[in-house]
Amino acid sequence: MGRTDVAKIEPIRGGYVNVQADGEDFRIFYEEAGTGVPLICLHTACADSRQYRYLLNDPEVTSRFRVVAFDMPYHGRSNPPENWWLKKYQLTTKRYMATIRAVWEALDLDRPVILGCSMGGCIVLKAAIDWQGDIRGVIGLESAANLPGRYQKFLHHPAVHGGELVATWTFGLNSPHSPEDGKRQNWWYYAQGGPGVYAGDAMFAAGFDVREDLGTIDTKKCKVSLLTGEYDYSATPEMTQFVADRIPGCRYTLMPGMGHFPTIEDYPTFRKFLLPELDFMHST
């Protein structure tokens, strides 16, 4: 399935949901397609739900899953909170978790599967730790238990074109084997990120660490699947292997030829790895 396979009128429904998370009110944009087991999809840092456009248009997925992808506050079509200009944006684990839970409950999603990539691939590990009795499972794309070293002060500086800098910096995380069209789509999404948003997301990643808690995940209660690209030098295959080794019953697949943004840079190749994990999540 690729770009030419998308119907002229796509079966994606979009809307806004107003939620409260971590003491603040947020207007969240979400899009969804399909019916069945709820599948919440979390985008990467500074991006938005457009990274899941092909997944949302994949009938082999949407025939069994209600796929819901939403833009985090400050990202894509979701607004920042009231008086956002009075403070610097910084995502925290607490706020991230609260936002996911607020959207999940507002949309009345029963025992969802949570899929996330990059920072989303990290937070799904925390979801499996804290919510393992409430969710069916998690699928971590480019997951790591901690991600030091991604924050740099030049990510938000008045002398730097933040959109082009972040888009081009992250472009290098794509696989050299991925189609140019997919990589350029992701570049465009990143170039549209708000000032300081990537920096604020990177600060979340720099402070994220669940290494000591991985062993508490019971995969009989909450299934765990991990998929990481061979060419990812941010959340490296070795970092994901570290996670997998500490979660008994975890499934881990290294994706040869793939990079850090599998859902958008090369969906036709990625879905070959994803579909078996969705089968696993769908099974009782």
* Total strands: 8
**Radius of gyration using CA atoms only:** 17 Å
Derived from helix and strand composition plus strand pairing, the structural class reads alpha/beta
What is the N-to-C succession of helices and strands?
EEEHHEHEHEHHHEHEHH
Query: What is the number of independent domains?
Result: 1
Please describe what this structure looks like.
With 284 residues, the protein is α/β, with parallel strands linked by helices. It has one domain (3-282): Rossmann fold, CATH 3.40.50. The protein has ten helices and eight strands. Strand 1 and strand 2 (24-33) form a beta hairpin. Helix 5 (162-171) runs antiparallel to helix 6. The protein starts with 12 loop residues before the first strand and ends with a helix. The model has no long low-confidence stretch (mean pLDDT 94).
How is the topology of this model organized?
Layout: E1 13-21, E2 24-33, E3 37-42, H1 53-56, H2 59-62, E4 65-70, H3 93-106, E5 113-117, H4 119-130, E6 137-141, H5 162-171, H6 180-191, H7 197-207, E7 223-229, H8 237-245, E8 251-255, H9 262-265, H10 267-282
Parallel strand pairs: 3-4, 3-5, 5-6, 6-7, 7-8
Antiparallel strand pairs: 1-2, 2-4
Helix pairs in contact: 5-6
